[in-house]
Amino acid sequence: MDCNNNYATQSYENLNGLVIGMAYVPWQKFEQVLDAENGLAHGTIFAELVMPFYGKKAACCGMRGAHE
Questions:
Q1: Could you give phi then psi for residue 46, rounded to 5 degrees?
Q2: Residue 63: per-residue pLDDT
Q3: Range of 58's domain?
Q4: Phi first, then psi: what are they for 13, rounded to 5°?
Q5: Is 46 inside a domain boundary?
Q6: What are phi and psi of 28, to 5 degrees?
Q7: Is the pLDDT of residue 59 over 80?
Q8: Considering the domain boundaries, does residue 59 fall inside one?
Q9: pLDDT tens, 2-56?
Q10: Three-state secondary-structure class, residue 50
């Protein structure tokens, strides 16, 4: 992946008529519940849903799917 790619120069003319997006949401098993303090800090009480967002850094540094 070229992390220095300038997205401002890309053309989006060929995207007309395409579906904006689709989601696949598998059934989730909630096995570990966080305490109130950690739940508030992470925005969820379900430990399985704590997934830090690394943005562009994840794609360039091999952090995709990494946990803190």
A1: -100, 115
A2: 56
A3: 31-68
A4: -65, -35
A5: yes
A6: -110, 130
A7: no
A8: yes
A9: 566 655 566 777 777 788 888 888 887 888 999 999 999 999 999 988 887 777 7
A10: coil
